[in-house]
């Protein structure tokens, strides 16, 4: 089973190459021409293929919505250092240690010194 990601419009394009180089399939809302769509529409796009959503939008930490939508999972990035290089380092660290978490639906919140993983 190939893991797929849908990157929210607030995620830099650099993450596309990073994830594709690790063997994942990646779509980006901006490249799909879907900038400005509502969160409910993002969920529905991700539901279509059990796709993981990667976002910086704190609205996606709503556990109730996480439960009701049949997405692959959600990775919410809440890093205080917003440079792309910091995001790539954090994502590499996460995947190196926890890539197995992508095999099951989780709400994952990545913070500077904390990683929270909910079923």
Strand content: 15-25%
Helix content range of the residues, please?
25-40%
Helices and strands: which structural class? alpha/beta
Please tell me the total number of domains: 1
Q: Output the strand order for the largest sheet.
A: 2-1-3-4-5-6
Distance between the termini: 20 Å
User: Oligomeric form of this entry?
Assistant: single chain
Count all strands and give the number: 6
Number of helices: 4
Describe the structure concisely.
This protein has 119 residues and is α/β, with parallel strands linked by helices. It has helices spanning 14-21, 39-47, 63-68, 84-98, and strands at 4-7, 25-28, 52-55, 73-78, 107-111, 115-118.
What are the key terms here?
single chain; 119 residues; 6 strands
Explain what this protein looks like in three dimensions.
This protein has 119 residues and is an alpha/beta fold. The protein has one domain (4-118). It is built from four helices and six strands; from the N terminus they run βαβαβαβαββ. β1, α1 and β2 form a beta-alpha-beta unit. The longest helix is centred in the last third of the chain and has 15 residues, at 84-98. The two termini are 20 Å apart. The model has no long low-confidence stretch (mean pLDDT 96).
Describe the secondary-structure layout.
Layout: E1 4-7, H1 14-21, E2 25-28, H2 39-47, E3 52-55, H3 63-68, E4 73-78, H4 84-98, E5 107-111, E6 115-118
């Amino acid at each position: 089973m190939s893991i797929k990601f849908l990157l929210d419009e607030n995620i830099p394009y650099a993450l596309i190459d990073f994830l594709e180089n690790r063997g994942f399939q990646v779509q980006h809302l901006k490249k799909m021409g879907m900038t400005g769509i509502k969160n409910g529409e993002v969920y529905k796009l991700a539901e279509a293929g059990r796709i993981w959503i990667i976002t910086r939008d704190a609205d996606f930490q709503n556990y109730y919505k996480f439960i009701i939508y049949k997405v692959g999972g959600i990775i919410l990035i809440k890093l205080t250092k917003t440079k792309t290089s910091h995001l790539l380092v954090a994502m590499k660290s996460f995947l190196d240690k926890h890539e197995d978490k992508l095999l099951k639906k989780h709400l994952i919140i990545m913070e500077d010194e904390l990683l929270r993983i909910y079923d």
